[in-house]
Design goal:
The chain is mainly α. Helix content is 87%, strand content 0%. It contains four helices and no strands. The longest helix is centred in the middle third of the chain and has 115 residues.
Length: 178
C-alpha cells in the first residue's frame, strides 16, 4: 500500500470544493435552474406565452397563405380572362381578315368591271371620233370634188358655149315662160 504521507502530499488544496447546506456549487446551479423552470412554468406561464406566440405566428402564416391563395385565384382568373380576350381578339382578327379579303375581291371585281366599261366607252368614243373624222373627210372630199366639178363645168361651159349658144338658150327660156 501506499504511504499516507505520500497521499496527503499528492492531493492539491484547490481540489476541495465549498459546501453550503450540503450542496456544492454544481448542486446550487441545479437548484437555481430548477427554481427558474418552476417559476417559468407556474408564475410567468412561459408555455402559455410561447403557445400564444406560436398561435399568433400560425394565424399570421395562415392569413398570409390565404392572401396568397386569393391572389393566386385572382391571377388565374385574370389569366383566364386574358386568354379569353386573346382568343376573342384572334377570332375577331380572323373575321376582319376574311371580311377584308371579301371586300378586296369585290373591289377587284368592281375595278375590272369599271375598267371594262371604261375601255368600252373609250373604244366607242374612238370609233365615234374615227366615224366623225371619216364623215368630215368625206364631206371635205365631196366639197373639193364639187368645187373641182364646178370649176371643170365652168371651164367646159366657157369653152363650148359661145354667145350664139347663149342666145338660143335665152330664147328657149323666154319662150317657155310665155
Amino acid at each position: 500500500m501506499a504511504d499516507p504521507a505520500t497521499i496527503a502530499h499528492t492531493v492539491a488544496p484547490e481540489a476541495i470544493e465549498p459546501v453550503l447546506l450540503g450542496l456544492t456549487a454544481e448542486g446550487w446551479v441545479y437548484v437555481g435552474i430548477t427554481i427558474f423552470l418552476v417559476l417559468a412554468l407556474t408564475v410567468f406561464k412561459f408555455p402559455k406565452l410561447i403557445a400564444t406566440a406560436l398561435d399568433k405566428r400560425i394565424a399570421d402564416t395562415r392569413r398570409t397563405l390565404d392572401e396568397a391563395a386569393a391572389l393566386r385565384a385572382e391571377a388565374e382568373a385574370m389569366l383566364a380572362d386574358a386568354r379569353r380576350r386573346q382568343a376573342a381578339a384572334h377570332k375577331d382578327a380572323e373575321g376582319i381578315i376574311a371580311h377584308a379579303k371579301v371586300e378586296a375581291g369585290q373591289l377587284v371585281a368592281k375595278a375590272k368591271a369599271d375598267a371594262d366599261l371604261l375601255i368600252e366607252r373609250r373604244g366607242k368614243m374612238a370609233e365615234d371620233k374615227i366615224a366623225a373624222a371619216e364623215r368630215s373627210a368625206i364631206a371635205e372630199v365631196r366639197a373639193k370634188a364639187a368645187t373641182a366639178a364646178a370649176a371643170a363645168a365652168a371651164k367646159l361651159i366657157a369653152e363650148r358655149h359661145d354667145a350664139g349658144a347663149d342666145k338660143a338658150l335665152i330664147d328657149r327660156t323666154i319662150a317657155s315662160l310665155n
